[in-house]
Amino acid sequence: MKNRKNSALIVLLVMLYMVIPIVFTILYAVSTKWQITLLPEGFTLKHFHSLFTNLRFYQAVGRSLSVSIISIALSFTLLLPVIYMGKVHFPWLNRIMRFVSMIPFAISGVILAVGLIKLYSSGPLAISGTVFILIGAYFVVIMPFMYQGIKTSLDTLEVKTLIDAAKLLGASEWETFWKVIFPNLMKGVSVSVLLSFAILMGEFVLSNILVGGNYETIQVFMFWSRGVSGHYSSAIVTSYFMLIVAVTALILYLNKYDTKRG
Asked: Which of 48-62, 107-121, 216-230 is the least confident region?
């Protein structure tokens, strides 16, 4: 009983530690003036109105969502077949992929950005448009999380047993993958997708160095807004937080809907 109370107290303290900054950020975003008083002296929505009537804000959000979604989709599409083949047919691929997936942890964002610019800015590998380099950089950043999520989900399934059973019933390995294995992967992979999305939406170094104002993402827009107003910046942070919560809720809902339907 005492251990349960201690655990509940720890959870409560952690929740307060996480929630209090968010609450005060929201309060500052809707305050007219808040300097020497315990609570704001007045409340207003003009900062949100100014933000939501700014076309630049919507463009920045759209760019961030586009780049993040493309990077996650690319990562999932390329890693899933490789990990599956390593699991079923070529076990030696697992050792290579495990090593490769750890490399991004050893490379800082600045080093990665400078290296990519140096490699792809000129010469035979030159790419026109740094946004494509940003997508590639994002792919590298989230690769460890996507790899671990897909592999862990596959490890929870008796893949070879399912394939053998499906063959006895007349199904091909391709049909078994899409109709049996793939649907069972999505629940576990959705956690990696959410984690990757949160990381990419909060990433600033790569987006600022690689694209900057040429392809202004929400991170670069937030950095620019520091010079406008603290209230305005808080409104951006609040809206940004609500966007991540909304996307997270949508992914969880779609995953739950697919599970029920299956």
From this structure: 107-121
Q: From CA 149, how far away is CA 193, in angstroms rounded? A: 8
* Helix residue ranges per DSSP H, the chain: 2-29, 46-52, 55-88, 92-102, 109-120, 130-155, 159-168, 173-176, 182-202, 205-210, 218-224, 230-261
Find the length of the chain. 262
- Given a contact cutoff of 8 angstroms between Cβ atoms, the answer to whether 100 and 254 are in contact is no
DSSP annotation of 31: B
Burial of 189 (0-12, 13-18, 19+ CB in 10 A): buried
Residue position matching structure tokens 């006895």: 168
Q: Contact at 8 Å (CB) between 234 and 29? A: yes
pTM for the full predicted model: 0.80
On the CB side of 97, CA atoms within 13 Å amount to 23
